[in-house]
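Methods — Computational structure assignment.
A single polypeptide chain was analysed. Its primary sequence is given first, followed by the predicted tertiary structure written as structure tokens.
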Amino acid sequence: MASRAMAVALYTLLELTRRRLLLVFVVIGLVLTAGIGIAPLVIPSIPAGEGRTLFVLNALDGPVQVAMELCALAIGATVINHDLDSGAIIAIFAKPLSRLSYASGKFVSGAVVVVFLGLIFAIGSMLVVATNGGGHTGVLALYFAAIAGNAVVLMMLVMILTVYLNNIISAVIVVFFTDVITVLHQLHSQVQNHQVINAFWDRVINIFYWVFPPHLVSNLQLDIIQTQLRLHPPGTPTAGQSLLGSVPAASSYWEIALWFAYLAVICVILYLAVRQKQV
């Protein structure tokens, strides 16, 4: 079974390398990253030293994450849907290939591409930071690991829905679902920081937080705030503590373990969806 799953994975990787849309997202992400690295060198108002590093970290936090999410959506929307739309799925299942091998190969190929793209963006971002003050390497590495982990779950959810629905509709549903998860994580952070004091909503938020797939978070935002406070101390210690308290905590070991558990469940759901698909 492993050899057949690997054959499916290699075939799918070959197909994904031919997707121009995926290449466009990668180019856009790299161009944005390079632009962020060049901006401090041409904008005179940006200070040198750690102030320049702070600017770069703030700027990287948004565009790269969006680029990764778009790539994950594009991969998830095409990996299985292309076989269904083209009719290739009939010829594939006519061969001595189990549905489990097919689903496993699709998951492996998609995950490999997402992780590889995350690695490209991570290396590019670290080079940008290195040329603008340096440091923060460990925080950036964990940040991109969290982004890649979230992108893999995003890709898998789209992949499952494309077995039943149009790929565009599937992507829209998952984007909305991801926004809900992000809001839940922010609300849970407020609960943890005792900013939500109503017992009923405290309980509701905690229940939904543990039911929905976990959203992996790194310490990048905390690192940015700490650097900002060090460079520009607030008027009172209370203001600084309040600012630090508003930052979501990095994912704990328990939350990471829960992420792996959810990924395993999603993989089983993908297999069941492929198994029940009539072709």
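Note: The chain has one domain: 2-276.
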